[in-house]
Amino acid sequence: MKIMNIFSKILILLALLIISANYTYAIDETLCDDLCPGSEWSTPISEDVQYPGTNCTLRITYSWRWNECLGQCEFLLKEDGGIKLFPASCSTSVNPKEVLEFAMEFISTRIGIYPSDPRCYPNSEDNTQTFNYYLKGCYHWVGYLDPILGSYAKLEPCESVGCCIYVVVIGLDENGKLILINMSSNVNSVCTDPDPGCFTICEEE
What we know:
By secondary structure, the protein is an alpha+beta fold. The protein has helices at residues 2-24, 96-108; strands at residues 27-28, 33-34, 45-50, 57-67, 72-77, 83-86, 128-136, 138-146, 150-157, 163-172, 178-189, 199-200.
């Protein structure tokens, strides 16, 4: 009987640990980011870069943070207008998924340029660093005309948003330059029945 009581207590303890772990690392499907107490996002940063193979300018607005729960650096593209393309006509010839992946590579390899947490830089053990990026499951281009900015298109999440988490690994080449090592995606919740014009960013296999 005593053994059964001890066994029951062990089972209860294990159940509590599992529930606690699931809560700590839970993903909010609305915000699409890891719920880690005390891990605050930085003030948004905006950078302009020419999109490869075009005469189009990409404006990327994002935030970063050190996630204490996971022990790694993370990035979040601004929800409204995090990706803007100038001029708006450029959106007819580029794929949103490819634009987002280019933006993630661009941001990751600039981690040593702007002030950030030194823990986000590739460590000295294997010269690599892993980042999480939180994206919605599907996006579409929306065109705008601004009296100052001119015409531009921005990526907006579709109504059936879903949650897509990209894992990006960067490293240092022989010259100490930051380079992309690997990029993969994990589906937290699928973008179901995307509206016409919506591009799915990552799907369940």
